[in-house]
Design a protein that fits this description.
With about 425 residues, this protein is an alpha/beta fold. It has helices spanning about 1-30, 45-50, 345-370, 385-415; strands spanning about 35, 55-60, 60-65, 65-70, 75-80, 85-90, 95-100, 105-110, 110-125, 130, 135-145, 150-155, 155-160, 160-165, 175, 180, 185-190, 195-200, 200-205, 210-215, 220, 225, 230-235, 245, 250, 255-260, 265-270, 270-275, 275-280, 295-300, 315-320, 320-325, 375, 385. The chain has a 19-stranded parallel sheet that branches. It has an eleven-stranded parallel sheet with strand order 1-2-5-8-10-12-15-18-21-24-27, covered by helices on one side. The protein has a two-stranded antiparallel ribbon with strand order 31-32. A hairpin with a 2-residue loop joins strand 31 and strand 32 (about 320-325). The longest helix has 29 residues, at about 385-415.
Amino acid sequence: MLEMKRPIIEYVTIVMLILSLTGSLSTAVCSTEIKVPIDYKTIQEAIDAAKPGDIVRIASGLYNESIVIVNKTDLMIVGEDVANTIIDGSGCDGSLIEICSAKNITIANLTIQNSGGHGIFIEKSEGITVLNNVFYNCKQAIWLGHSSGNRIEKNRIEQCSTGIGLTINSTSNIVEENEIRANNIGITITAYADGNIISKNSITNSQIGIKISLSVGNVVSENVIAGHKQYGIYIYGIRASSNNFTLNIVENNEIGVYIYQSHGNFFYCNNFIDNTVQVYLTGDEINYWSYHEKGNYWSDYTGVDEDGDGIGEIPYEINEKNKDYYPFARKSGWTPQMRGFQINIYVILIIAVAAIVYIGTLIFFKMKTRKKLKSLELKGNIKFSSFFSILFFYVSSIKYMSQLLSKELQLRRLQ
């Protein structure tokens, strides 16, 4: 009797898998657009009505409201025009946009201004993308707490107390290609905010460019950190260690790097140019000023490069325990190859999908030629051939790849 039911069970399994894939593709590629103020008068009403995969499009205009996004997933909130789609807090306390316990939310193309609290506050959330927004006159423009795996990208932030804050166990976030200027502090990383990447940002003309305390393993690379009245980089406290600073331009600051009771941080392949004080250390803690025989360029280095290899023979001395043993004799003296290379996301996805299709097809025809398929004994003595396990993996993989591709396409359209 069980053998008679087997074809029916297998047929149902195939149908369910196909429906699952079809539904995933339609959700990933197609989404409902909710327009403000056409469909809903306020942004909050539109967000409350939105379902996973929807796009809330906000028309140009001035919106005096605070927005709360709680327990939402896979939602895009996009302004029509970043210069003219404005959320204004009129100086009131609190957050203009609060994202809590959410996943895969995108906030893009908005001007967020005049908040006595946060412009955007992200709490206990992951997969949040803050892209191509303008923040002006907020106490804290973008603030993360207990949030990991988020992206803050291509925003402009000015006239705020703090530009971007990664705090309280906010780990593995990416802060990239933002223009942060004329604030009190550009970026602060504190309270066990470990393993974040701060890359390719322009952080200028504030009191402090980047401040790190109580956090380890962060990577600060390819940033311009310039024109700060106090410190370009400020590292504070015992647990601020094992942070890596590389390929940055630290220029025209009162103090390029100020280190207070911190140790074990790495600085290499940076340009330290015309800071009033290049580096100031308050104690004898040891930090590292070269890595794999590559140091930094120092505009006030007085040594010579006698053998012409681009590296000075005399170490650059900060104090007795902190020396750059491989100072570069000229600005950006390291080779461009150190930057590595970037693979286009489309290439990765195409190769991955092609590989899955090829392997799945190969296995299918190989197993089809066999006289008997090995079966897996499941509960209730219902037998499924191993072919269906492979089919499930095959369909699930394509489903996942389609979701990734759809997300990337949506983000690229916003840029």
